[in-house]
Every structure is written in C-alpha cells, then in structure tokens.
Amino acid sequence: MSILIVYDSVFGNTEKLAQAMAASAGSEAKAVRVGEVDEKLLTAATVLVVASPTRAFSATPAIKNWLKGLRSGALNGKKAAAFDTRVDTAKINSRFLLVMVKLFGYAAEPLSRMLAKKGALIAAQPAGFYVDDSEGPLTAGEIERAQQWLSGLLA
Ligand SMILES: Cc1cc2nc3c(=O)[nH]c(=O)nc-3n(C[C@H](O)[C@H](O)[C@H](O)COP(=O)(O)O)c2cc1C
Questions:
Q1: What is the pLDDT of residues 89-109, one digit of tens each?
Q2: Looking at the domain 3-154, which fold is it?
Q3: Averaged over 13-32, what is the pLDDT?
Q4: How many angstroms does the Cα of residue 129 sit away from the middle of ligand 1?
C-alpha cells in the first residue's frame, strides 16, 4: 500500500499535520505539497489524502485546481479522504462569522466530494483539525488526533 498525502499550507500548520501523519504511517507514506505532485506519485498511490487550510470557507485555489485538473476516473480504485485545518467556532467571537461558517462550512467536505467525483472511494469522513488562531499554532492534541484519523482510514 502506498499512501500519498497531498497538501497545501499558507502558514505551515496543515503541512505540519500532513508530515506528522505521513511519518506515523510508515515508510510507504509520503506527504507532498500540491505543486510538487507528479503523475508517477499519484499513479502509485493506493490511498490518497488531500489536505488544505480552510480559507474563506473553502480550500485553497491550488488544491481545488489540482483536483479539478485530474482526468475523469483518475482516482478510480483508490481509497481517499480529505481533511482541513480550521478555527474552532468556540473561538470565533463574531456573530456574523459564525453565521457564515454555518452557511458555507469548511474545506474538507467539498474536497471529499471532488475526490469522489474523480472516482475515489471515500474511506473516511472529511475531518477538520483546529488551529488556535488565524495563523496557528495547531491546537494541542491535534497532531495525535489527525494520526488516529489516518489510522482509521487505513484500517
Ligand atoms: C484569509 C484567511 C481566511 C480564513 N478563513 C477561514 C475560514 O473560513 N474558516 C476557518 O475556520 N478558518 C479560516 N481561516 C483560518 C485558517 O483556517 C488558518 O489560517 C489555517 O488553518 C492555517 O493553516 P496553514 O498554516 O496550513 O495555512 C482563515 C485564515 C485566513 C488568513
């Protein structure tokens, strides 16, 4: 089994999670920034995880464009799942933003739908891992929670 984690990251938090997850999943796992994924890596992967920071209720353009650009059926036969990083609603003190979050959500769910559209078998619920503030750091315990989420997906 070859596990590929394709991520984007602006401040480094999603990258940190992706690298820690790959490290915990053994020698067949690799985390690669979205601009550096080549066809060979993707073809060899039997499990694909896609990750993005939530920015304006969505994934980054780089991740969305990469997924959109895959040919139809490119992910046939692969297990896949998506996660994002996000701010906990408990830490948002603007009523307006809370309403917007309720309405528009986060990056992981639409990413998961895009994975399915390209033929992947969704093997775990989309997940969100928390940062303490807009630019991070990751909330305590989130690396371990993300590693557990990945083991669940691989089981
Ligand atoms: C311009 C901008 C927009 C953001 N929009 C959201 C959002 O809609 N929902 C949310 O939960 N967090 C939002 N955040 C916080 C990001 O999710 C946070 O910066 C990200 O998780 C950090 O990951 P990274 O270090 O990998 O970039 C936003 C942050 C910035 C700077």
A1: 988 889 999 999 999 999 999
A2: Rossmann fold (3.40.50)
A3: 97
A4: 11
Who lines ligand 1 at CB under 6 A?
9-15, 53-57, 85-87, 131, 134-136
- Cβ neighbors of 110 (< 8 A, separation 6 or more) are 58, 59
Distance 67 CA to ligand 1 centre (A): 20
> Residue ranges of the domains in the chain?
3-154
Per-residue pLDDT, 54: 98
Residue type, 139: T
Q: What is the pLDDT of residues 110-145, one digit of tens each?
A: 999 999 999 999 999 999 999 999 999 999 999 999
